[in-house]
């Protein structure tokens, strides 16, 4: 018989790793910042534009819901839109409090229970979402960097840096194209793809192999939602809408702090924040802060202190709006974040 291990002790290595990761990123975030000046820099903000950030912080819940509806409608055409929005909110609220991005599993399970969907079906839609998020951001960054000669006057850099940016722009477009090609291949040759993956992973332990194949099967199952090229094109367009809306939040943030930048210059900055936000720490703490400051300093050439202050404001607004909306929804339904966390953990197992 396997001895029982308390959950806290079982998860201690993971908790320690997350704390160390946060501290490392926070160290690099805080380095080179004159913190005495930061409070004054944070306070020097346009109040009307700052207040506009609050609804803009919630905008992506709506745009993500519009996109998600395209997928879930294949299972149930009359899914209530407010439940899709609520699922997004409570999922991001779980991510804001707990590590390991459990909200990505909690939100489809929440929607499945509210609308009577199959849990595996709902989880598969989230896998598809994440693939399209990655492809969309890579494509936006690639197009931005390839088009750099058109706006070189607004963003003056040296010729060597320009060549490097053009190279990485090409890489970004290539990654997006490769992801699209791989998606289509998996869709049209799904059974063969599963057999190939099972063969390649035959040396792995059975549990690990089953988990990988199960994840791939859910993703391929999600691809079946696209019944026509027009539906796929609609989903891709909505993916661009999601990220252009996120860019709008940061663009207004820059104007609130009197940083005048063209809208298109927000693309590489948002790409970096997306990398930071993907690091599985609670509330994006550490990863988001470091990559946000890095983008503001390197891409937009801001003072490190101002960049640090604006990063803290952007993070605080997003977390506050997400948690306020999330707690309001949960209070109405008599749920707690810990119950949602358990939903995500049960599905992961």
Question: What's a concise summary of this model?
Answer:
This protein has 349 residues and is mainly α. The chain has one domain.
Task: Write up this protein.
- This protein is mostly helical and 349 residues long.
- It has one domain (37-348).
- The chain is built from 15 helices and no strands.
- It has helices spanning 7-10, 12-30, 38-43, 47-72, 81-97, 103-115, 119-146, 159-188, 190-200, 206-223, 229-256, 266-277, 287-298, 304-333, 337-348.
- The radius of gyration is 21 Å and the shape is globular.
- The protein starts with 6 loop residues before the first helix and ends with a helix.
- The relative contact order is 0.15.
Name some characteristics of this structure:
mainly alpha; 349 residues; disordered N terminus
